[in-house]
Amino acid sequence: MKKIFFITIAFISLNISAQKLHEKGKYVAVNGVKLFYEIYGEGEPLLMIHGNGGSFSCFENQVKEFSKHFKVILVDCRGRGNSTYQKGIELTFDLQVQDINLFLDQLNIPKTNILGWSDGGIIGLLLALKHPEKVNKLVTSGANIFPEGVIDFEDMKKTVLDLENKNKNHENDLAIDLNNLDLKYPNLNFTDLNLIESKTLIIAGDHDMIKGEHTLKIYESIPNAQLAILPNSSHSALIENSTLFNEIVLRFLMQ
Question: In terms of DSSP bridges, do strands 33-40 and 26-30 run parallel, antiparallel, or are they unpaired?
């Protein structure tokens, strides 16, 4: 029977000292870009993939605790954080899956657990579909499988138009590419997820920017998946509700 964690307890804010990142970063050249990454801890690998407009700094509330149990690998996706970008090359999820697949090869990591937030969760789902041999356990938080799964989809269109209208000197090129990524992609069907072999945990906040029914359908479409809906949490559950988020994810990964 599938497991669903409907977390109903109140979240108590705690002061947690986050491990300082960007202390021992390195670059690896893959697929026409240089990806910036850092590694913390030892043991079974756990790759953390951030969301659209951010960097791996979003996982600062996870690194210290997770690196006690895993070899935590943090990577900035192309064009974000300290990684480089290819202008004129369309930014797609398939391209980023290629990046991450080659990145794992360069680091001699044949198989890894994955924690992906938002767009990072989408990349995780696609990796599990395209390279199942690379993915052990998969955790996604706030992921969608087609653009209309986002509540503010129509607002995303307006944002791109506004950026394009104010892009006289190409200062908005990257922002336009990033917004178009989520406006156009991914283009999966729920039935595609039936092929995922990895043990999977789907997470969302109880007022996430991803439609609740969309998240539920993702969970239902993945064989033997688990689902956790975090209370008093938005799309940024891993940041604003990190203690509970970490507890749930670690329990799943260490089963």
Answer: antiparallel
Backbone angles phi, psi at 169, to 5 degrees: -110, 20
In angstroms, how far is CA 170 from the centroid of its own chain?
A: 28
- Which residue shows structure tokens 């705690």? 14
| CATH numbers and ranges of domains, the chain | 3-10+20-253 (3.40.50.1820)
List the strands of the sheet with 226-230, edge to edge: 3-6, 226-230, 199-205, 135-141, 112-117, 45-49, 71-75, 33-40, 26-30
Written as tens digits, the pLDDT of the chain (255 aa) is 455 544 433 332 333 233 455 557 999 999 999 999 999 999 999 999 999 999 999 999 999 999 999 999 999 999 999 999 999 999 999 999 999 999 999 999 999 999 999 999 999 999 999 999 999 999 999 999 999 999 999 999 999 999 999 999 999 999 999 999 999 999 999 999 999 999 999 999 999 999 999 999 999 999 999 999 999 999 999 999 999 999 999 999 999
